[in-house]
Specification:
Structural class: alpha/beta
Number of strands: 16
Shape: globular
Number of helices: 16
Strand order of the largest sheet: 7-6-5-4-8-1-9-10-2-11
Radius of gyration: 25 Å
Amino acid sequence: MTRHIVTTGLAVLGLLAASTGTGLAQETDTRPNILVVVVDDAAFMDFGAYGGEARTPAIDALARRGMLFTAHRSTPLCAPSRAMLLTGLDAHRAGVGTIPEVIPPEHRGAPGYRLSLDPSVATIAESLQEAGYFTAMTGKWHLGHGAGETPDAQGFDRSFALDASGADNWEQKSYMPYYRGAPWFEDGQPATLPEDFYSSRFIVDRMIDYLDTPERDGRPFFAYVAFQAIHIPLQVDPAYTDAYIDTYAGGWDALREDRLDRAIDLGLVAPDTVLAETPGRLRSWDSLTDAQRTLYTRSMAVNAGMLEAMDAHLGRLIDHLDATGALDNTLIVITSDNGPEPSHPVGEPGFRFWMFRNGISWDVETLGEPGTTAFIGPEWAFAAASPFNLFKFYASEGGLRVPLVMAGPGIAQGGRVGAATSVADIAPTLADVAGLDADPARFTGRSLAGLLTGAPDTGFAERSIGFEVSGNAAFVQGRWKLVRNLAPWGSGEWQLFDIEADPGETTDMGDIEPLILARMIASYNDWAETAGVLPMPEGYSVHRQIFRNAIRRQLSFYWPWLAGIALVLAGGIGMIVFSRRKTHSN
């Protein structure tokens, strides 16, 4: 009921903003189209416009004719970030405080941890849909798959969605033991992928089909494109991979230094920025064998190639908008859901057996091709996150700080935004530009519309932004950042950083500024209570929990089969015992 009241009110405001006519779908409706693109696991510097090695001409062109954000943060994990993007609320308030793969049993079903969007929360898609927009999404959803949880029930007229953290990019199959298959849905119904499937190409093709459908009937559109690239498994045509072999031949230690130098040259960080010390758990490039260097060099090359291929398909979508006359009136938003992925799945217990059972290889000669898995691992992820510290899952800047590019009508060209912004700001921004209500009482985030004109907005200078996923937490207020990371990459203790002077998070200021530390902890606790953050169980480990949850899921998949075997064995043993007793009695 609450959702209906909110979205209906926004619909009325949206209609007032539209051109006059006898219905919603008028060709004279001049409100801007909206295209939101989420790249999966892209580091702050992965796009060419931010100094990355991969060729991303489509994104770079948008950055030149729009605004590039340099202090934008997302959560350190995919589904919470997507929930915030679509609702403008903190992830816990939206119902997605973490993901199913890592949730401890103590949190299951608790408020804020339903693992799908809360029914009382309205998505920006619902608001735009009721205001007369045609709404469509393609790609990764990961926000629920039950009745009322798929995109068709969350405000999207058309959708082709993957409800999983990831999947194979060449076939309809899982990429890890947690999933039995690849659960794709079209308009809420289980769907089958085409024989010639490749994720980035298909996601764009299907979106073009939706935008060209007669059902749109001249309405402005909201298109949400959520790529699988560059999430594990890294997969792409070898022609893309081969172009980057020499690029990464120097190894991850060299890349980390190179990205720092480029970030300084591009003015993304201050000239005196220092890199955080490399954790002792990470291997040095020089410690590897020649065969290992070859394998890991190609892994990073596949990563860059997959990003370039994604950009090429995104370019096709942008070209289509241009050819149909829609581009000049389309607001385009491109971002990432979190920092680079550090997982090394082949080293996890049982993963190689799962690969064997599913015909998946990890051979350097075919890396990235159909039937393979690939990943960059923690060392490359740490390097890719440069000039920041750590990576996905963690609340250091390497996990939170991500690229954000916005371009479109009314946006200043070639500008930079250094204000602290959050993924929760995207929904109120879209509401604002579409003529809907961006009332702060409805959103946790703030509209960025003022910043997009190039004018300074002092209201962002001292804003407070909180993040928490699976015990890893951060609270940003002006120049100060409070951080807590759990094991294995953190101590579980609060640290305080002057994030403007020390974006690499190298010097803990807690002992030097104890009053500021105490104030920030108190502010975080207030925020966490309001957001509905639950404390983590004693001894929680995200990696151990992934393993336990995967085992539990596997048992649920095969329990009827295992139970049948158990019954047969029990029956056989019973017959043997009965037979022996009968023999002895005779």
